[in-house]
């Protein structure tokens, strides 16, 4: 079946439907990862977006037990070529089947290089994937210009509080971590659990008083989707957590919300950082790490009061902020994903740093 990708600038790509076949509007973003397509599809940070994979062949190892959440969150999936016969000892099915089961619209057979260049030149755009050849281009463009992702965090956060027991390294004095679920990826929990931490997961809109009353050894602020400035209620609660003495480690959206809670500003990037190959420099020792990233917004470093926090990491490609260390506080935040799997494991040591902080070391 033919499928069409229509961008808000009027550009139309024609390909083959590989997903549910329904029509969807979404923000079109691109990811430069060569593997990890299932992790991309199930990452809650992609809620409201359709993902273009720049690597030309997707699906060759099929669907494996590597989901980052219980379901797929991307609204659409755009690839150059999708493997018909996946082969891997862990394979449980084909990507085409997964897209249909998860009701995700998809399109294959288009020039993804041309599409990515257009998004890089003009910036992120809204788009529609449809199998209806009788679409009205003028109406579609008008509707696309009105499309906006709203209440993204509310869509992806957990329904209620729950506890994940500590892993094999657990001991009588296991650390207890409170994880604020802004759209968390499973591997954040795995990274803590395998290091002997018990993790209590809280819905995004939980009052700070509830979390602090449980007396955790540390607080984790997760990744998540959407414009950070819209999370005004969550920012108020994070400000209360900042005022306390409990160590805090924040990733991606959590990093941005902690900065906003301390008076800094965020802004939308032209086309975002999404992929497993982004170089980040540690400002303390000058070492460069390869990181996995997925964000469309960044913190304006100049807007952060230098007496409150100092820049800890910077993106080597474009100089954007990648993290802060807060002065006089056991708080550090990063824009990239130290838990990413599969992907660069260079920055996994940050979880050990968090554990050392919780132990008072």
Mind explaining what this structure looks like?
By secondary structure, this protein is an alpha/beta fold. It has two domains: 2-149, Glucose Oxidase, domain 1 (3-Layer(bba) Sandwich), CATH 3.50.30; 154-358, Rossmann fold (3-Layer(aba) Sandwich), CATH 3.40.50. 23% of the residues lie in helices and 32% in strands. It contains ten helices and 19 strands. It has helices at 37-41, 95-101, 112-122, 137-146, 152-156, 186-193, 208-213, 232-243, 253-261, 349-358; strands at residues 2-7, 12-17, 24-31, 49-53, 57-58, 76-79, 81-82, 105-108, 125-130, 162-164, 175-181, 197-203, 218-221, 248-251, 266-282, 288-299, 309-315, 321-326, 331-334. It has a ten-stranded mixed beta sheet with strand order 10-12-11-13-14-19-18-17-15-16, sandwiched between helices. A hairpin with a 5-residue loop joins β17 (309-315) and β18 (321-326). α8 (232-243) crosses α9. It is globular, with a radius of gyration of 20 Å. The chain starts with a strand and ends with a helix. The relative contact order is 0.14. The model has no long low-confidence stretch (mean pLDDT 96).
């Amino acid at each position: 079946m033919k499928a069409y990708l229509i961008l808000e600038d009027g550009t139309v790509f024609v390909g083959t439907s590989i997903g549910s076949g329904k029509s969807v509007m979404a923000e079109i973003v691109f990811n430069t990862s060569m593997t990890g397509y299932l992790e991309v599809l199930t990452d809650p940070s992609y809620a409201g977006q359709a993902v273009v994979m720049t690597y030309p062949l997707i699906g060759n190892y099929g669907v494996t037990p590597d989901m980052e959440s219980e379901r797929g969150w991307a609204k659409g999936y755009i690839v150059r070529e999708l493997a018909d016969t996946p082969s891997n000892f862990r394979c449980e099915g084909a990507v085409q089947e997964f897209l249909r089961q998860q009701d995700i619209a998809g399109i294959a057979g288009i020039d993804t290089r041309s599409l990515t260049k257009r998004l890089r030149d003009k910036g992120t755009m809204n788009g529609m994937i449809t199998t209806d050849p009788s679409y009205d281009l003028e109406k579609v463009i008008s509707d696309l210009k009105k499309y906006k992702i709203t209440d993204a965090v509310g869509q992806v956060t957990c329904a209620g509080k729950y506890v994940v027991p500590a892993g094999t390294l657990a001991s009588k004095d296991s650390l207890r971590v409170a994880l604020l679920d802004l759209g968390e990826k499973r591997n954040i929990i795995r990274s803590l659990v395998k290091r002997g931490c018990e993790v209590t997961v809280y819905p995004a809109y939980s009052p700070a008083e509830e979390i602090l009353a449980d007396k955790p050894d540390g607080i984790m602020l997760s990744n998540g989707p959407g414009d950070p400035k819209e999370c005004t209620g969550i920012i108020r609660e994070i400000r209360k957590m900042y005022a306390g003495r409990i160590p805090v480690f924040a990733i991606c959206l959590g990093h941005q919300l902690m900065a906003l809670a301390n008076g800094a500003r965020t802004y939308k990037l032209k086309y975002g950082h999404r992929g497993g190959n982004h170089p980040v420099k540690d400002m303390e020792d000058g070492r460069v790490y390869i990181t996995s990233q997925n964000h469309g917004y960044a913190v304006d470093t100049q807007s952060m009061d230098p007496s409150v926090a100092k820049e800890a990491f910077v993106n080597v490609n474009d100089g954007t902020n990648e993290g802060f260390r807060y002065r006089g506080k056991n708080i550090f935040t990063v824009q990239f994903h130290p838990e990413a799997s599969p992907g660069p494991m260079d920055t996994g040591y940050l979880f050990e740093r968090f554990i050392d902080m919780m132990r008072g070391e």
